[in-house]
Amino acid sequence: MNRDVFILSNGRLKRKDNTLYFVNEEGLSKPLPIEQTDTLHLFGQVDFNSSALHLLTLHGVRLHVYNYYGYYDGSYLPRSDRISGYTVLNQCAHVLDHDKRMYLAKAFLEGGIHHMQRNLRKHGGDMTVYADTLVSMIPKLMQAETIPELMGVEGQCRQIYYEYFPSMLKGGIKWEYRSKRPPHDPANALISFGNGLIYATILSELHKTVLDPAVSFLHQSSSKRYSLCLDLAEIFKPLIVDPLVFNLVNNRRIQEKHFELKDGIVFLNAEGRQRFLSAYDEKMKSTFKHRKLNRNVSYRYLIRLEAYKLIKHLIGDEIYKPFKAWW
């Protein structure tokens, strides 16, 4: 399986013949393993031209760009040969049909709530009671009749979940409340950084399928975002990002010294990003035995499997059920 490449330094992507090089600010040049690369993540201030993009297209490499603070900015997706007008028409039809859209929107949130309560149970003690409170929200979720009602239930679940973050973060980094734009403290900076990574990863995996990432069910489809990534992220943020944050903080692999504050925005410094990205890459490569497939799959491939399940639902082959970790 091809790998992700993370570039944290400032510099330039330069193509020479059929090889892509990264040239840093000191002029040192390093070849990038383009033929073994799945996705390229640019966290530094990196210049590149159309020649470099052409080489990425030839090898089917997706490019994600992050801003100065390390938060997701945008993507370059090579031309894809995975096209199915039939699937996209059915995808749009499920958005336009209220009942079909509601079914999928509820399914994404149900998967997310399952993983939120799973995180609470894993920390034991009094939090198992609050995990039960989250589970009790499922009937309310299923009774919702509109998307705004669903988002209201999702907001209540998040409020319950985030209320007990202080008990799950034990490595000296404090939590007060969730703040996104901008993150006001290190804990929020970690979550926002991780969420940006999972959005980009989901987009890369959707690009390998025939789904249109701009056509979504829970979140409103928009001309300015890949909203289907937001839908699937409801399942994978509490499954992948949140446990990773708990692990890094509670084992003191990331501490207060790994953050900076500028213009009212808290963000990871260079060492902090390196530590988070290393742990994230390791997590996405790690495998577990999938009980339905009866073989080991990576967390990265799990995301694509979820997209395949969605395709089967859209074309009428198999009813979609959200992934729920059973361990």
How would you explain this protein's 3D organization?
It is a single chain. This protein has 327 residues and is an alpha/beta fold. The chain has two domains: 3-66, CRISPR-associated endonuclease Cas1, N-terminal domain (Ribosomal Protein L15, Chain: K, domain 2), CATH 3.100.10.20; 85-314, Four Helix Bundle (Hemerythrin (Met), subunit A) (Up-down Bundle), CATH 1.20.120.920. The chain has helices at residues 50-58, 85-96, 98-122, 127-135, 138-143, 147-163, 165-168, 186-206, 227-250, 270-285, 299-314, and strands at residues 3-7, 11-16, 19-24, 29-32, 37-42, 46-47, 62-66, 72-76, 259-262, 265-268, 287-290, 295-298. The protein has a four-stranded mixed sheet, with helices on both faces. A four-stranded mixed sheet has the order 4-3-2-6. Strands 9-10 form a two-stranded antiparallel sheet. α3 (98-122) packs antiparallel against α4 (127-135), α3 runs parallel beside α9 (227-250) and α9 packs across α10. The two termini are 25 Å apart.
Would you summarize the structure shown here?
By secondary structure, the chain is an alpha/beta fold.
